[in-house]
Specification:
The complex is a heterodimer of chains A (161) and B (744).
Chain A (H helix, E strand, L loop, with lengths): L6 E7 L2 E7 L5 H8 L18 E4 L2 E4 L12 E3 L1 H4 L3 H13 L8 H13 L8 H4 L11 H12 L6
Parallel strand pairs in A: 1-5
Antiparallel strand pairs in A: 1-2, 3-4, 3-5
Helix pairs in contact in A: 3-6, 4-6
Chain B lengths: L11 H5 L15 E7 L5 E7 L1 H4 L4 E6 L23 E2 L5 E7 L2 H10 L1 E6 L6 H4 L18 E7 L2 H7 L2 E9 L11 E7 L3 E5 L5 H12 L6 E4 L14 H13 L3 E4 L2 H6 L7 E9 L5 E13 L5 H10 L9 E10 L13 H19 L3 H8 L18 H12 L11 E9 L14 E7 L5 E5 L8 H13 L6 E4 L17 H28 L4 E3 L2 E4 L2 E3 L1 H11 L6 E6 L20 E10 L6 E11 L6 H20 L5 E2 L2 E2 L18 E5 L22 H13 L10 H8 L3
Parallel strand pairs in B: 1-12, 10-11, 14-15, 18-19, 25-28
Antiparallel strand pairs in B: 1-5, 2-4, 2-6, 3-5, 7-15, 8-13, 9-10, 9-12, 13-14, 16-24, 17-18, 17-23, 20-21, 21-22, 24-25, 26-27
Helix pairs in contact in B: 9-10, 10-17, 13-14, 16-17
The chains are: A alpha+beta (161), B alpha+beta (744).
The complex binds FE2/S2 (inorganic) cluster (2 copies).
């Protein structure tokens, strides 16, 4: 609400440094979408309950609707647009198409970001993608297509390891 | 730079790469933020409404009240009880009173807060049976003086006689609850106005032509002065049909003469949600000693809420459709649709059928128990068969229900059921559905497709049906590609713009595969004929179309060549065909008798559950779904429909409940309204029994809704098997199951 303090902030988004003038308490989700035009990140609730706004901060999935933009300074922020450029991400895309991991697509950016992070470092999530996805709601797919796609992509060497 | 083009605006790959633009990602030049002031009371008179302070706020461009908008009689069904903004009375919490368009979100919020309203609270009524009592507050005097806009009474055969003859009678009062559709994309729209074109609304709606007609009536405009453009839809399941938000955005755009965007936040979306119509069933079924079902007798009460959305169609479905699974010798239904001061209720996947089947499949299991019969055996004895005409007149050209039951028994290991450990249970349930329904629009049924040959030899297929992520575009491309022998990837499917594409009745009633698919097939066949005759004209007699190329003797030519031949002969115009599929169905008569759909899909599901006796919590540990949906056009997408539907059913039965007390939603957040997560879904094994249906495109029948219909019954029966206690009210929450276990 309080847009009184404007501040210049340096954010590293998808490998590029950008200076953004604004309220440091604004949500990272809004800054990405409105400020940077990165509308791949979706907003389903603004209260941290749906996971559609998930992005990576230093490789860790966070719900960007709850992250104040100011606190994201100095962190490596990656959105779905950035991840989509990578070859190992494309393997996951193909697996999702094969297994029906996407329907309406609104949860998909968040689901993909989380799943990709899990593929990089499963141990960070106790190894289980079901556990990693606990903050990502999907109303369309029943999750099974997502889980199978991720397993396939991981088995095919899609992870970083 | 990427040069590969997507197959449609809702292309799945684009979704996986974050490139899809939903309405909340759109921004039009000069766009304003719209917000709505809603009633905090379930029933009240507006005594004073003062917007002068709101109008004076910097950045506010338009403020509208009921005094500033037209008041025509309109609504999406024949019960025309809608307004644009309330003038004197509000009928539910969330009823719209005023609306604001402003330069910024902050200014719009400030303006809403600055509107002064004084209310005189009126007594409300919140239960359909109470609403019918004399003396209850009346919501819409001109439509239903007794709060009952619709009543159903039908009887086939002689129920009274069968009641005398029955050896076993089971009955009960069953209830299905309010379910929030749970679309991940919150509801919203952008509207604009111009004097030449009228209203344009960018709105995720899968029934945009009905929306156009409804909104035009609301503004007193001709139908073609409203255009609905449908961006990719971020989930609906019935929630995104015809909505007041669209109308209010348009009213604001007309007043502000600038585009206006309204996106609800999740709280507003849930507080004002139009959930699944809650139904109460007083159901009784009787059978003879051998287990032949004799009759079904039901009274259904439906809570429409304060206005009619799609509740009439839902109660009509509940009163009839499940009867077409069994050979009941007689059946009687009485239905009462009632107004209350709750938020209007509407459709959700399953559409009355899934609700009624929860009750019917529960009672059938009770009969089996009493007769000491295996529930699967009892069903096998009573199901409808191919070639039959059902009790309400459905003509079954194909029906693999028997095979579905056999198969689901085999893959679930049904014989294990007899010796499961304590508090573990297995339940079976059957389902049917339609593939389009003749009475959705009494004036007409069917679908139109336009197929166009582009200069590069690729094809564009235009349809009036709507992509929801279910795979409609992929299916249509596959159907047309098979007819023409061209690669699927060379066909771009376009839809979702009432100003550009053919008329469509809407993607509801599981219509899209069979209706739009048949239209796509007809268009592809017409294009094939046109291509062959063009080739004969250009090359000589005997030219043909083979594997997507023109052949004449030893020579073959790509379709790009044919495109050029046509353009050369037709002033540059592209070769285009337009075909309409009109199904050979019957409009149900006044007693709901008739053959309303080109074909009917069937399913048999088995659920296995484990109930914790200390907490009452149910975990679904295994699930098997066998379907007769005719030919499966796209297996991956078809499986996705079943997985998603079963997951929604698991949520419905074990956890979801939009709790409304005195008209107020008590759990308007995704935290408090819990939906299934990845770990709530067991392994789901699916089998499609592919028999070709003569009336479906490539032999297909529908799938999207029949995949949800049996889930509540299957899980409820599994819980009853596990605990020995029958649950009558959804959801079968931990608390309810615990109480049932500990009741005597
Ligand atoms: S929008 Fe951030 S969790 Fe839902
Ligand atoms: S694909 Fe629609 S919510 Fe996940």
């Amino acid at each position: 609400m309080n847009s009184a303090q404007q501040q210049a902030m340096t954010l590293t988004i998808n490998g590029r440094e950008t200076v953004w003038d604004g309220d440091p308490s604004a949500s990272l989700a809004d800054v990405l979408r409105e400020g940077q035009g990165l509308t791949g990140t979706k907003i389903g609730c603004r209260t941290g309950e749906c996971g559609a706004c998930t992005v990576l901060m230093d490789g860790r999935p966070v719900v960007s609707c709850l992250v104040p933009a100011g606190s994201a300074q100095g962190e490596r922020i990656e959105t779905i647009e950035g991840l989509a450029e990578r070859a190992d991400y494309q393997a996951l895309v193909q697996a999702m198409l094969e297994h029906g991991g996407v329907q309406c697509g609104f949860c998909t950016p968040g689901v993909m970001v989380t799943t990709y992070a899990w593929m990089q470092q499963p141990e960070r999530f106790d190894g289980d993608l079901g556990a990693a996805l606990k903050n990502n709601l999907c109303r369309c797919t029943g999750y099974l297509g997502i889980l199978r796609a991720a397993e396939q992509a991981l088995a095919a060497g899609g992870g970083a390891r | 730079m990427k040069t590969q083009l997507s197959k449609s605006p809702a292309d799945l790959q684009a979704k996986l790469e974050g490139q899809t633009r939903y309405v909340h990602d759109m921004r039009l030049p000069g766009q304003l933020v719209g917000k709505i002031l809603r009633s905090p009371h379930p029933h009240a008179r507006i005594v004073r409404l003062d917007v002068s302070r709101a109008r004076a706020i910097k950045g506010v461009v338009a403020v509208l009240t009921g005094e500033d908008v037209p008041h025509h009689t309109y609504g999406p069904t024949k019960f025309k009880d809608w307004n644009i903004l309330a003038r004197d009375r509000v009928l539910f919490i969330g009823d719209e009173i005023a609306a604001v368009a402003a330069e910024t979100d902050a200014a719009a919020k400030q303006a809403i807060a600055a509107i002064e309203v004084e209310y005189e609270e009126l007594p409300g009524v919140f239960d359909p049976e109470e609403a019918m009592q004399p003396g209850a507050p009346v919501l819409h005097e001109t439509i239903a003086g007794d709060n009952r806009p619709m009543r159903i009474a039908l009887e086939r055969g002689d129920v009274e006689r069968h009641k005398q003859e029955a050896a076993v009678v089971k009955s009960g009062r069953y209830r299905s609850n309010r379910i929030y559709q749970g679309h991940l994309e919150p509801i919203g729209a952008i509207a604009s106005w111009s004097d030449e074109e009228g209203i344009t609304i960018w709105a995720p709606s899968h029934i945009p032509y009905r929306a156009r007609e409804t909104y035009a009536a609301g503004f007193g405009l001709p139908e073609d002065k409203v255009r609905i453009v449908v961006p990719p839809i971020g989930g609906s399941f019935g929630s995104k049909y015809v909505l007041k938000v669209h109308v209010i955005a348009a009213a604001l755009a007309m007043a502000a003469r600038r585009p206006v965007k309204i996106i609800m936040d999740r709280y507003e979306d849930m507080v004002t949600a139009h959930p699944r119509v809650p139904l109460t069933f007083d159901l009784e079924i009787g059978a003879d000693r051998e287990g032949n079902l004799l009759y079904k007798d039901v009274v259904v009460y439906a809570d429409a809420g304060a206005r009619v959305y799609w509740s009439p169609n839902v109660i009509a479905t509940a009163c009839t459709r499940p009867d077409n699974i069994y050979r009941f010798q007689s059946a009687k239904s009485e239905g009462h649709l009632c107004y209350t001061n709750n938020s209007p209720t509407t459709c959700m996947r399953g559409f009355g059928n899934a609700e009624m089947l929860f009750a019917v499949e529960s009672v059938i299991d009770e009969i089996a128990l009493e007769l000491g019969m295996d529930p699967a055996e009892l069903r096998l004895r009573n199901i409808v068969r191919p070639g039959e005409r059902t009790i309400h007149g459905y003509r079954l050209d194909t029906c693999l229900l028997e095979e579905c039951i056999d198969k689901v028994k085999a893959i679930s290991g049904w014989e294990r059921r007899a010796d499961l450990p304590p508090y573990r249970g297995m339940g079976i349930a059957l389902a049917n559905h339609v593939s389009g329904f003749r009475a959705i629009d009494p004036r007409f049924d069917g679908s139109t497709a336009v197929l166009r040959l582009k200069g590069d030899g690729s094809l564009e297929l235009e349809t009036g049906e709507i992509e929801l992520g279910q795979g409609m575009s992929l299916s249509y491309a596959r159907i047309a590609a098979q007819v023409l022998g061209v690669p699927e990837g060379s066909i771009l499917v376009k839809s979702g713009d009432t100003g550009r594409y053919p008329f469509g009745i809407g993607t509801l009633a599981s219509r899209s595969t069979v209706m739009g698919g048949n239209a796509a097939k007809l268009a592809a066949e017409a294009l094939q004929r046109r291509l062959v005759s063009l080739a004969c004209e250009v090359l000589g007699k005997g030219a043909s179309l083979e594997d997507g190329r023109i052949r004449y003797g030893e020579e073959t030519y790509p379709l790009s060549e044919a495109a050029a031949w046509h353009r050369a002969r037709h002033a540059g115009e592209e070769l285009t065909v337009r075909e309409t599929y009109v199904p050979d169905t019957e409009m149900p008569d006044a007693t709901y008798y008739g053959h309303p759909s080109p074909n009917y899909p069937f399913a048999a599901h088995v659920a296995e559950v484990e109930v914790d006796p200390d907490t009452g919590r149910t975990r679904v540990v295994g699930y098997w779904a066998v379907h007769d949906s005719g030919t499966i056009i796209h297996e991956t997408m078809a499986k996705g429909q079943v997985y998603g539907a079963v997951a929604q059913g698991i949520g419905w039965v074990t956890m979801e409940d939009l709790i409304v007390e005195q008209g107020r939603v008590k759990n308007p957040s995704m935290m408090d309204y819990r939906m299934p997560g990845a770990r709530d879904i067991p392994n789901i094994e699916i089998a499609f029994l592919e028999g070709e249906d003569p009336n479906g495109p490539l032999g297909a029948k529908s799938l999207g809704e029949v995949a949800l219909d049996p889930v509540p019954g299957a899980i409820a029966n599994a819980i009853a098997h596990a605990t020995g206690k029958r649950g009558y009210e959804l959801p079968l929450s931990a608390e309810r199951v615990w109480r049932a276990i500990h009741s005597t």
